[in-house]
Amino acid sequence: MSDIAERARKALGKKATYGPDVDLEEYEVEAKPHDEVQSIEEVPEEVRRAALGVGVSLEDEVGGAYIQMDQTPVVASSSTEGIEVLDIATALKKYDGLKDYWWKLVPVDQDKYTADVALHPPAGYFLRARRGAKTIFPLKSCLYLGQTNLNQRVHNIIIAEEGSELHVITGCTTPSHVQRGLHLGVSEFFIKKGAHVSFTMIHNWGREVEVRPRTAIYMEGGATLSNNYICLTPAKTLQTYPKAILDGPGAVASFNTVLYAKEGHLDTGSEVVLRAPGCSADSITRAVSVGGEIITRGKMVGEVPDVKAHLECVGLILSEKGRIDSIPELDGRCGGLDMSHEAAVGKISEQELEYLMARGLTKDQATGVIVRGFLDVEIKGLPESLRDELRRIMQLQELHGGA
């Protein structure tokens, strides 16, 4: 651990490659403690309501649950055989520091945000699917930032062992009275041979919350990943750029991003490195700006022949103040590759609006119908029950055009 701490200290002043810089000293370090609860039923009502807004219904059957309030894990439980859910501090003690996994994918000195997470007591979740284990009901986690102006730090480890199947929904949220805060999240995924992981992250932050997730994924042969990110409510600034390494034959990764920005600055993207024959990856983004600034980045790196990769970003601008900047990048390093990208930014068709308005909808209602349809991306690798749940979340949002 001493080497990790030393590298982190040296990086405390290191700005991130992308996104506006955040002054860490503006945010509080000390979080108020919360009591652990014995069951999901005892989770405070305000947390349950906030979790429901990001798709984490604690009333439905779940395969396991992790709830964190500020820096305190209050629930960590599994109801599925072969699936382990622990808070990360407990996992580090139980598994001798998680030597094969802890800070192995995300560099601790990547930037000031990873360094800051490393230099404070660990919080976050440890999810593990043992060999051949499969989740029937999804694991659900809620990272709840309830203290105004707090710097919430999270470090998550997800391990899907050979032949396992893991479905996870993570909701990150603040209650209505918390508008300002900082969320730093480090997540490291290890998806082993033939394992399948679907991971859906839904953000619902206050208007003055700044968000800096740092994610890396390592995939072995035959592994599959469906990584889905949804942000439909404003944050002050968001910057995330997960990286996946496909290091075994036939590994498949799919990134799906849905963004709706009334205001704020969202800088999102992903990088996928294809290192083995038969690997494939796609990254699809749907972005709507109603006044916010959206930057979408995508990079595919083909290192060997016989790999396929596709980038796609389509955006709608519904306000004179809106901005969408799409930056696709293909990096082919040998022959025998199949790599492509597609990008488009436009506006809603007047014909579509007129058609719906002629059938009795107001302009805002018609715009909302069109925007929901536009953002309803077909997400690969999800059970139908999860697809239905994501559609329900979309229907709860008030999506409409700007002035």
Automatic annotation (TrEMBL):
It holds the Pfam family SUFBD_core. Residues 150-374 form the SUF system FeS cluster assembly SufBD core domain. It comes from the Archaea. InterPro entries: Fe-S_cluster_assembly_SufBD (IPR055346), SUF_FeS_clus_asmbl_SufBD_core (IPR000825), SUF_FeS_clus_asmbl_SufBD_sf (IPR037284). One of its GO terms (biological process) is iron-sulfur cluster assembly. Belongs to the iron-sulfur cluster assembly SufBD family. This is SufBD protein. It comes from Methanothrix thermoacetophila (strain DSM 6194 / JCM 14653 / NBRC 101360 / PT) (Methanosaeta thermophila).
